[in-house]
Design goal:
Layout: H1 2-25, E1 46-54, E2 60-75, E3 78-89, E4 92-101, E5 106-110, H2 114-118, H3 122-125, E6 128-130, E7 133-138, E8 146-156, E9 159-179, E10 183-201, E11 204-220, E12 224-231, H4 232-241, E13 251-260
Antiparallel strand pairs: 1-2, 1-13, 2-3, 3-4, 4-5, 5-7, 6-8, 8-9, 9-10, 10-11, 11-12, 12-13
């Protein structure tokens, strides 16, 4: 009887050993990597959007924006691709250029901060630091990931004060209707951009007046940006217009109507 009991206990111990050994050796499979190209940047790629702009007086204007990638340009020793944009509103067209690069970490647009610097008194300008690029996208694309897009800070002695801070994060995927040439649904990641503006209160230098502005973009795999929507201050900066607070209440929406990927 004793020998039988020992045999049973031994069998139980061996079973437990093998169970936990197998359990600990089991590895969790990593989530599948999204290999889609969310910003195709071949030379010659072409996009066309329907545009609607609403100003602070609630006046609306509509038009189109055509965008294409044409060659490269060196700025401050850095090679950028050239994005040529043609905006047509009420029969009038204007063309502008913006510049971006796409390393492994994301998509970065050069930003001209000259206009922004001119609004800062010379006595403070020497203490200001600001990014010269906008990190429009960050890779890998994944729901919940956040990153810093742009910062402008004041550093005076031990004091570090952030005046402009733009943050972004990937939200869940959504179905977006684009017009190519008829209605077509595309699954796209939604991106939220938040611009925080901190201005010292002239009545109390120890306090700041904080304003927040939001804009959104939707990016579809192997196509790129299929939709923009939100605050014009942010979206104009992404289109190469720099950061301007002349009218912070204007809103912009752009929906893709045509595209050609080389």
């Amino acid at each position: 009887m004793r020998e039988k009991l020992l045999s049973v206990l031994t069998l139980c111990l061996l079973s437990s050993f093998f169970f936990y050994a197998c359990k600990e050796s089991t590895t969790t499979e990593p989530p599948p990597t999204d290999t889609a190209n969310y910003f195709p940047n071949n030379d010659g790629n072409y996009y066309k959007y329907n545009v609607e702009h609403t100003d602070s007086n609630n006046a609306k204007t509509v038009g189109t924006r055509s965008s294409s990638y044409q060659g490269t340009k060196v700025l401050s020793g850095v090679t950028y691709q050239v994005q040529v944009d043609t905006l047509t509103v009420s029969g009038f067209s204007s063309t502008s250029e913006s510049y971006f690069r796409k390393p492994d970490l994301g998509v970065y647009f050069f930003i001209d901060t000259t206009g922004l610097s001119e609004t800062i008194p010379d006595t403070l300008l020497q203490y200001m630091t600001m990014d010269n690029e906008l990190a429009v996208l960050s890779f890998p694309v994944q729901t919940g990931r956040g990153w810093s897009v742009f910062k402008m800070t004041l550093q005076y002695g031990p004091l570090t004060f952030t005046i402009i801070d733009v943050q972004a994060s990937y939200m869940d995927k959504e179905n977006v209707t684009i017009l190519v040439p008829g209605e077509e649904n595309k699954e796209a990641y939604k991106i939220k951009y938040t611009l925080t503006l901190n201005i010292p209160n002239p009545q109390n230098p120890l306090q700041t007046i904080v304003s927040n502005f939001e804009a959104y973009a939707w990016i579809a795999g192997n196509i790129g940006i299929v939709k923009w929507e939100g605050n014009g201050t942010i979206l104009n900066a992404f289109a190469g217009g720099g950061i301007s607070f002349a009218d912070t209440t204007n809103t912009v929406s752009q929906t893709l109507t045509q595209y050609s990927i080389k």
